[in-house]
Amino acid sequence: MTGQKFPSPLAGVSRDTPLPTAKAADGKSLVNPPAGTPSESYQQFIKAYDTEKRGAFDVHVYYDQTSQDQTQYATELYERIRREFSELRIYKLWDRPIGPHPTAMFETKT
Hints:
- The protein is of the alpha+beta class.
- It has one helix and two strands, in the order E-H-E.
- It has one helix at about 70-85, and strands at about 60-65, 105-110.
- InterPro entries: DOPA-like_sf, DOPA_dioxygen.
């Protein structure tokens, strides 16, 4: 993220209540509270290949955990996804490399 500034991914999202840390029934993903109304982004994306519970795509968002700016942005993006797309499976936000992943990251299914 050098040279270009992006607006916070949490802009325009209510953060009145903290997000829960409880795990979902699968024992791995996190419970997200209902968003209330569907995100406008649903009108801008193509139909998923798979509408099953696991989702069509597996997305890993990597960031440099030694960069304060990248860590803040990734943390805010993680929260934004959980608040706006509560039906998506999302996993823990890792603040360090884990398993085969060479840097900090989080994963979500779409």
